[in-house]
Amino acid sequence: MADLIPVSHVIFDLDGLLLDTETIYKEGVVKILAKFGKSYSDDLRLKAMGTKEQEFLKILHEELELPLSLEEFSKEYLSHFTVALANAELKPGAERLIQHFHSKRVPMAVATSSGQETCEVKLKRYSLLCSYFSHIVMGSSDSEVVKGKPAPDIFYVAARRFKDVPSPEKCLVFEDSYNGVMAARAAGMQVVMVPEDKISEEIRKTATVVLSSLEEFTPEHFGLPAFDS
Fold first, then answer.
1. pLDDT tens-place string over residues 174-222
2. Cis peptide before 92, with omega less than 30 degrees from 0?
3. Of 17, 170, 220, 221, which residue has the fewest beta carbons closer than 10 angstroms?
4. Is residue 56 helix, strand or coil?
């Protein structure tokens, strides 16, 4: 394991990291694209995953040359997912980790590429856990997030909104997507990657640490309080 720098603050991605939404998104996108005789390849998914909603839809619309306007495609997308995402479950280890950091007074935030409308749907069941976060940055509807992942904007914004405004090297990011990892690294932050799918060795090297589940995370490796035995 490479040398790890002690941190004081934690920033979580949401989709595919804390919430098990990537299967919902993948199945939904496949279903929507099938209406137009289009497929959702792994390469296209890797390219689009983790970006702001507007950019995600633009990538699909342009790459697949869909036979409807981007605005019409966006409406179809949102109408499907505002229903489908309501029952999203937490990923293994997510609740335990959030509860642990909360009990140890480790400042936490969420930095998600999703917009307010879909975030409210996904998080409605988890109001107590959400109250443990200092703030939630919703990239697709936040005016301060000019560029989405893989640009570092969202993580700079997340760090600035902590009351004590930690420096980037004091922030540890948890991400599942390659674009998210690239954004965190560009922001000068260490990043724990918990990928949804099998990834190449080249992508693994971009992350500080790669885990198969949040259940594997060891807080003291980054100078954070250990789990109570």
1. 999 999 999 999 999 999 999 987 888 888 999 999 999 999 999 999 9
2. no
3. 220
4. helix
Instruction: Give the integer Cα–Cα distance in Å for 229 and 225.
Output: 12
Distance CA 121, CA 155 (A): 23
**pTM of the predicted model as reported, rounded to 2 decimal places:** 0.86
Among candidate residues 134, 185, 186, 179, the one with its CA nearest the CA of residue 16: 179
Longest CA span, the chain: 57
Neighbours of 80 (CB within 10 A): 15
CA 76 – CA 36 distance, rounded (Å): 12
Q: Mention every residue, 6+ apart, whose C-beta is less than 8 A from residue 21.
A: 14, 15, 85, 88, 122
Catalytic positions, written as ranges: 13, 15
Question: Which of 27-31, 70-74, 154-158 ranks highest by mean pLDDT?
Answer: 154-158
pLDDT digits (tens, 9 = 90+) for 52-78: 888 899 999 999 999 999 999 999 888
Residue identified by tokens 């390469």 is 43
Number of residues that this document lists for the chain: 229
Is 81 a residue whose pLDDT tops 70?
yes
Q: Is it the case that residue 225 has pLDDT exceeding 80?
A: yes
| Three-state SS annotation for 93-135 | CHHHHHHHHHHCCCCEEEEECCCHHHHHHHHHHHHHHHCCCCE
Radius of gyration of the chain (CA): 17
